[in-house]
Amino acid sequence: MTLLQTLPAAAQPDPSFHLLALVMGWTVTILIGAFALAIIYKMIKGDINLMYLIAGADGDASLSRFQFLIFTFVIALGLFLIVLSQQPSPAFPSTIPGGILALLGISGASYVTSKAVDANAAKPPASETNIVVPAAAAPAGQTTNVIVPAAAQENNAAG
Amino acid sequence: METLMTFARYELGSLLAILMAVVAFQMLTGRINTRGVISEKTSSGIGSVSPSRLQLLLFTGAFAFYVVSQVIQLRQFPEIETKWLMMLGGSHSVFLGGKGLSLILNQTQNKKED
Fold first, then answer.
1. Handedness of CA B66, B70, B76, B80 (dihedral sign)
2. Is residue A75 part of a domain?
3. Which of residues 2-21 of B touch A (CB under 8 A)?
4. Structural domain includes residue B37
5. Which residues are CB-neighbours of B98 under 8 A, at least 6 positions away?
């Protein structure tokens, strides 16, 4: 209570703090813009290969990945528009309706399930499974001959 | 501070728009592989057009358009009725069921050939 009484009624913002916030704001904004531009430039140039952006493990396009990409873009665009439209200054929405979360949940769950089905399809049948049996240890006192191929010997000599 | 906020708005909007445009352009020009997106996948490769995939693609497009149009109109995320969510869930279930069934049929066929 004593502390509250000692505080001024309307605290004046420190001008140097305002300047610091402004500098930090510009720095972060320019940095994010530069990073994003660099990524987009590399995408356009082809250094970042997007060929398999919506492809499955087999290399063909996957509808589950495609719908996940579409909903991701839709939610990102929607969130951007909503944040900008908040008054008096841009702000995140206070609540996100359950329907939107359910939409994302359905989309994500479908993607994961589809991936699980693909992984199961890629698994080889039981008859083709390779079983590696470790070699038995040599009994004590018995000499083990190791035959080194000629190519390996040449490599060792060169090294 | 006003200048910074205006700059940030234009920057984020532009970057998001450019990113979407790059992905859309690369899909249309074939640099992003879209081969077989609505086709059935068989053990011998890509088969014919799959109805379950086609209906999911149409549902996805319709839902995406609905959400974006509502956000532009209301300036907030729309409340989506449960029946529409159930329809979307059903659409995804049909797609996944078809995919699972196709997998089982392919495996059965492979066993018979062996």
1. negative
2. yes
3. 4-5, 7-9, 11-13, 15-16, 18-20
4. no
5. B50, B52, B53
- What does the alpha-carbon distance between residue B63 and residue A77 come to, in Å, rounded to a whole number? 14
Say whether B56 and A121 touch across the interface (CB within 8 A).
no
Phi and psi dihedrals of A33, rounded to 5? Answer: -60, -40
The B residues from 33 to 52 touching A (CB cutoff 8 Å) are: 33-38, 41, 46
- State pTM to two decimals: 0.74
Number of domains composing chain A: 2
In chain B, the residue whose alpha carbon lies closest to the alpha carbon of A106 is: B89
Residue range of the domain that includes B56: 50-114
**A·B CB contacts under 8 A:** 158
pLDDT tens-digit series, residues B39-94: 887 777 777 888 889 999 999 999 999 999 999 999 899 999 999 999 999 999 99
Q: Looking at the structure, do residues B26 and B62 belong to the same domain, yes or no?
A: no
Q: Are residues A26 and A73 in the same domain?
A: no
A158 CA to chain B: closest CA distance, Å?
45
Residue B31 tokens read as 């640099």
Does A109 lie in the same domain as A57?
A: yes
Does B81 fall in a domain?
Answer: yes
B22 domain residue, yes or no: yes
Domain range for residue A91?
A: 52-122
